[in-house]
């Protein structure tokens, strides 16, 4: 799976998590997950669990850094290392 495909999965799952399918068309690789999308901590946990399910991976949440959520592209880079 390439980075662009992972970004598409991330965008789709983010939209489902925050229940806002309309906004996903405006999000890009540069969109900040925390500040631009406004995901809260509970939504973030649900989102990351859905990412694991969708991609069939198991993430070490202790390994995650706040910078990994600085953008959709940054999270896709992190996820690519774990696939």
Give the terminus-to-terminus CA distance: 8 Å
Shape: globular
Count of strand segments: 0
- Over all CA atoms, what is the radius of gyration? 11 Å
Q: Estimate what percentage of residues fall within beta strands.
A: under 5%
Averaging pLDDT over every residue, what do you get?
94
* Alpha plus pi helix count: 3
What profile does the largest beta sheet have?
none
User: What's the SSE pattern?
Assistant: HHH
Helix/strand-derived class?
mainly alpha
Uncertain residue ranges: none
- What percentage of residues falls in helices of 4 or more residues? 40-55%
Question: How would you portray this structure in words?
Answer:
There is one protein chain. By secondary structure, the protein is mainly alpha-helical. Helix 1 crosses helix 2 (41-55) and helix 1 packs across helix 3. It has three helices and no strands.
